Amino acid sequence: MKLKAIFAVLLGLWLCIDASAQGSTITVRTAAEFVDALGPDRTIVIAAGQPMNITEAIDQRVAEGTLPEGETYFTPESTDGVTAHVTYASNTDGNTLQVRRCDNLTIRSAQGRATLLATPRYANVLEFIGCRNLKLENLVMGHTQDGYCDKGVLELDDCNHVTINDCDLYGCGTEGFVIDCCNDVTVNRTTVHDCTYYTMHVTRSTQVRFNDCIFRDNKKYDQLCISRSDDVDFTGCLFDNLQGPLFALDDYVDFYCCTFRKCQMQPIDSEFGPQGYAVLAFCTQLPDESPATIHVKKPAISTGLWTDGTHRYQVTQADAYRYVFTSLDQPEEVFALNCISAKDNEYILAPEFGYENFGRLVADVGRNGATDYVRILDDGNMLLRSLRHIGH
Predict the structure, then answer these.
(1) Domain 20-286 carries which CATH code?
(2) Considering the domain 304-391 in this protein, what is its CATH number?
(3) For 148-161, how does the pLDDT look when each residue is reduced to its tens digit (9 = 90+)?
(4) Beta strand pairing call for 253-256 and 230-235
């Protein structure tokens, strides 16, 4: 019986290891387990009850000689997961963890928010390089020490299709985000606060969107530094007590339904208030002494089937603020509704995926009894089209 019991335990352990190796879900409870678990095609669930210091795990692996330095040794063809996908960078006062070419990687907390810390002030907490389909959820990331520093919290370099949900990034890092040479990065309901110099740098990137985020108490230099990038926008975000000029923009950046408090910017006194390259629509600037609040949430549009009485449309949700209507009778007819004012229950009509008709056609979204409706109006509030939801 004892031999059978031992065999059963060993078989169970083998099955767990094999399942993890096949790219399913790996649960970690220590920083060392977290570093060792990093790789492509997997979900890492952090079940630690206490904050995990990544630096300690990196230093241990470097001392053992099992973690290569990124600048001198990187072999993506290696069969060793650590060698191929995880490296470190040596900085002034410590080491940075670098996650390389880890496609289809999700890192999330088992419950609440898991905390990842870095000790060196001259090191990013995490760096992701060349990753595709990366998702980070319910994480707190920051440094263990305050003071002067040279690196930020989260750096994305040459990454595509990144989603960050419900995270908290804080200093003393110079800034919360460094996004360089990336495409399709969406950040939802995330806070960046108490950073030493900036809020973020976005360079050479496309389709970068921040939805319902909070940026507060960051200080000293230009806060939003965005250059050589395209299709960067902020929707429903709160900018509170950011010291230093708010905008350092080389490109047009759109702000929809955002709130600004105690920020260095010109007053917003009209619906459209261009400031440099910033285009502000349906934004609010609160007096310094006012409590900072975010607009109420946008009204949702039901997905599924809709009709205007003649044609049927399949409605899908492209992101948190855009709904795509595709005609089932004329597939070439596609348009989108983009939320610009949750407070006033307003959407705009635009060709997918642009904003060419911005401000010309608006959409009234509501419910009549048990039926959802969308009424598309021109700028004189004349009804152009009425659609109703007919099922999923």
Answers:
(1) 2.160.20
(2) 2.40.128
(3) 556 678 899 999 99
(4) parallel
